[in-house]
Amino acid sequence: MSKIELANKLNEQFKNSSAQDVIKYFLKEYKGTIALSSSLAAEDQALTDILLKEDKEAKIFTLDTGRLHPETYDVMDATNLKYNIKIDVFFPNENSVQELYQTQGVNGQYESIEKRKNCCGIRKIEPLKRALKGLDIWVTGLRASQSVTRVQMPLVEYDAHFDVIKINPIINWSEEDVWNYIKENKVPYNKLHDKEFPSIGCAPCTRAVKEGEDIRAGRWWWENPEHKECGLHKK
Length: 235
Prior knowledge:
single chain, alpha/beta, six-stranded mixed sheet, 6 strands
């Protein structure tokens, strides 16, 4: 059975299952080759709690782009302390970052989509490839209602770009579902969420949203909505 066929089978099998049941199955069946990629945002924090309640040794990693908000480091520290873990951290290649500065400056990402995606590629995509090496299952905190680019994402899919099966256990959760879980389970969260930051990435590319704006409006706000992905979750 190909990975595409397996993903389709699993998607059908778990399409009506709870996030907890999905996580329980995959942690058991793919122990040692499954990991959550966490941006330390609310969705990933909820999933961190779910994973670690099921398996205290569950693998969780994050990407430190070198341009994160101070509050993101604070929630990383709080998470490590609460669960007595050390989230794995992957950094961009030093030489690639130096070359990035030399070719497009400190804030070249504002000048064009190409330059912004080049920055994302160096700071996020390449480290993610290293993080996913040897894994069979990639767990994400994606939700369908986050943006127009994610509406059609299934619960389980084959990601050809990274050659891995990706599961999105809370794909059908609402924002209210996420916050109810965080409050009920006393999960540490990024305090920028209290300052109208529903979606949090690198500091230069994230701002607070205004009343009535889409929850992803604060990410790469100078670009059109259909372009607002960094390449981590492209089809």
